[in-house]
Each structure stands twice: as C-alpha cells, then as structure tokens.
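Data deposition worksheet. Section B asks for the primary sequence of the deposited chain exactly as it was used as input, without tags or linkers unless they were present during the calculation. Section C holds the resulting structure in token form. Section D is free text for depositor observations; keep each observation to a single sentence. Incomplete worksheets are returned to the depositor.
Section A, Depositor: J.P.
Section B:
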Amino acid sequence: MTTQLKERITPVRRRGVPGDNGHTDGRGNRKIVANREKPPPQPSPGIPGEGERGEARREIRRRIRQLGKWFHNIDLGGVKTAPDHFLGDYPANKWKRFARAIPKDLGGKTVLDIGCNAGFYSIEMKKRGAERVVGTDWDDTYLAQARFAAEVCGFADTVEFVKLSVYDVAALRERFDLVLFMGVLYHLRHPLLALDLIHEHVTRDLLVFQSMQRGSEKVFRPKGDYPFKKVDHFDKAGYPKLHFIEHSYSDDITNWWAPNRACSEAMLRSAGYEIIAHPEAEVYVCRHLEHLPFIAGPRAVYPAAASKRRVSRG
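Section C:
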C-alpha cells in the first residue's frame, strides 16, 4: 500500500444510532380469563413468533450492536441498523429520489462503489442483477458492517468489500461499467485529484456522483477566459465555489468542503465527465469522456502508478 495522503484520522461518525431497547408485550396488561387455563405468552411485537425466525432477529440485533454505530440505516431481516438516523431513513430516502436514473437491469455489468460505508448501495446494485460488485472503504468498521449486511441479504459470496483509499483506485487495475462516488468528495483533502484518478483508472462508462452542497443553487457558466483585471464575475451567486471548512461542520471534523451546485458540475466536467442526468439535488449521472479537447496537458499528478502495485484483497 502506498503512503496515503494525509486525511483527518477520525472516521465519519454520526450521532443518534441507538442500541436495542427491547420490546414490550402489547399494552403490558395481563388478561384474566375465568375458569380457563392461563393463555400461553404472546410473542413480542416485531418478532414473528418464537422459534428460528425470532432467534435470527435477536442474533441480527446482537451483531448490529457489536459492530458499533452505523451511518447507513439498512433493513436486515426486519431489523433497522440506524433507526434514529438524523437524516431519517437514510440512505434509502435518498436512493428513492434517484433510483429511476439507474438501469433497473444491471445484468452483465460491473459496479464499483467507492466509499461504500455499510454497503447500502453495493447491495442495491446487486439486487439489480449486477454481475460483479466491489465496494471500497478506508474504515474497517464500515467494511465489517458492509460484509455483515451483505451476508444477511444473501450476497456474502457475490459482493466484494476491499479496504482501499480513493487515492489508490489505480491498484484495482480494472475499469467498471458503473462507478458510484456517493457522499465522499467533501470528506477528502484533495477532491479534484480524487475525481481525476477515478476518471483515469476506474470509470468505463457511467459515474453516479453525490456530494453535500451548500450555497446558491444558481448556475453561472463563466466564459473560457477573462482579462486579469476583470473580477466582478467571481461575486456572482452562481459562480462555482468550493467552500473550505477549516475546523468542523455538523459535528464532523472530516467535512472539509462544501461545493455549491455550480462547483459540483464544473468539477465533474473538468475531471472528464459529461453530465447526462440530474435526478436529485445532489446527485449527478455522468458519462466518461475519453477525449478531453478542452483540457491541455496532464491532469492527475500522483506518485502511484497502476503498474507498480496491486490491491490486497485479503
């Protein structure tokens, strides 16, 4: 593994993921039946009877607690991993708003999920029939959660999760038909470099991109060039701006950047992508462009080359 570019050490953590509070037995009142035997105890709400299914759910709850706090709220056999998420049923609620933009049938396609977290999107891609799905993350806790989620969903042997930095995607030595880059850009010290490397090494056709965005929703497309003393366009509401977060935002010190809409779109174009759909405020579906006549000279400057190392999948 090459020396990683310096990131904040603390991984993304969110508040509001509770433990198992148990269940009650309905109203909690004991029913008295005259001249009859005491009725058998009723199963707790949410547990489908005593037996194998009830035991399976209890084991799922135990494993969820054991794996720490979850950021992805995933339904695992009727048990939610983060039921009190501050963004609601996230990321399922986000997914519902742009799922229509992804092919329903991914048969024969390969998918890479960069920054997969607990594997929600990796699992959804497999549900759509993707031939091969690889999820990458740099956080061991998230990778353990992803592997467990895939196991419960029946994809333990068909979704691969790999510990890998986005800056080392060249080590995969493979291009994918569909690449997901969701909720990662604003956590990176070097976001445009990451986009350049993704374009240079792993996208073949489609990129699905999402980033937290702040600032104006207007989009101003600057001219190709301006005289040195021309400065007023920089103050336009829709000018591409990447807001730098020096300390912390939303109690998360790994939030480094907050682009406005115009900046997200400009960065994607600059990295070599054509935006073909904008199905949700923060989500863009892009097509990989092979020839970039509007960019002169090399774009990605990085010490690691694909030919010099391989990713460890152990």
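Section D:
The first strand starts at residue 75 and ends at 76.
Residues 104-291 form a domain with the Rossmann fold fold (CATH 3.40.50.150).
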